[in-house]
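seq:
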Amino acid sequence: MWLWILGLSFFSYGIIKYWVAPMLVVLFYKKQGLDINRVPTFGHIAEVVMNQKLHGDVSYKSKTMARKNPNYLGEAFAIGSYTILHLMDVKLIREHLLKEDLYRKAYPRTFKHFLGKGGLMFADGDLWKKNRKFILSQFTMDFHKKMIPIIHEAVMKGINRIKNGELKNKVILPELELISGEIVGKIFFGMDLNKFEFNGMPLSLALTQIVGLIDEVNLSLPFQMLGENFFDLGLLPSHRKIIEDCRGFRNLFMELIQQKKKDINFSVNDDLISLLIGTQQLEDPNMRFSDEEILDLFLSVYFPGIQNPALSDQMLLYCLGRYQESIPELKEEIANIYNRAAPLTYEALSRMDLLTGFIKEHFRCFLATGGNLPRVALKDHMVGDIMIKKGTVITIDQFYNFHHPRYFETPEKFNPKRWLEKKEFDDPFVFIPFGEGPRACIGQQLTWIQFRILVCEML
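struct:
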């Protein structure tokens, strides 16, 4: 009898938490003019999978809605116990991104085993401001110019690996991840971190493997139904393996930081880890970085600094192969500006207007990653005419605006020359491949340098 009552209680609790409560919030947004998916968790996932299967595009709905409904606001759906509000209207996106103080980051806690509690991805408040202030103080124009030879060397090593490797029927992404990983490693530690291994792989590839396993857990049924606390218990072998790998990966980098501190010359080095260690001697305790904060800050840049540029590099190479009509003019522009006999300069790279247009168009059609991280509303508030309820997870979808005829003529056509008109959008939030607002990507200029050099050298 008691077991039956206990079972019924758990069943009722699950129905209320994972069905009734989130669907009431979803219906709340429906009354405000937003599209909804009535099937919690599996409805949205099934729609995405179906679009991938039928149309080869997980963003198919966003792109078609841009043509069907010019005033589409977005959609609301439930994932587990959370209600997700997926914003598409540019005015709503702009207002959401500019109200940073009303949200906290919504990354699953599974990533915190890897990234820690600080850094730029998870930290909030004063800790986030301290992290961002330090990075922005270093990422000056002179710094970007100084990084060009380092980025060029890493790109050339990667291209030579691609040229000399047997890559038929193989995925090229790992080679591109090695390029990005080498760049971030030299910026922070002053050396190529790929010479170190974890789980028998170079660190860049080990990192992306761990992140991939975390993503798989986040999409799994046990995680969706039982949540982050269940994962933290480590009851399943796959969960324990990830937690152990995250701990081991962090320990490896902590050892590298300790080795750097023992280097009697670290105080004259200009790599970012040495500069961060140097803050520990500052009089102002609010400006010092502890070893743990240094580790968190590094990993919060190392993770997206490898994955995001590598995914975009891959799509750039795909576009070069698919839209070969652009190649003759690209080659001509490169030949006129990209002089291998002279030192490569930031100014020369920036003068390649057609190449810049090609990269922007690749973002518009095949954005591999972008926008800002998901946010959880801290309190009820208004975004435009939409009342946002506390606890709602906010995401943004840029493809709706990228394919909206209001902003892009013939949006279905890949046309790099559309960007040569130097068109300024009435709303700058129409095109934000690196995000916008207080949380915009701080590494976007370094990424632009990497993209331009990669395309120039590949062509």
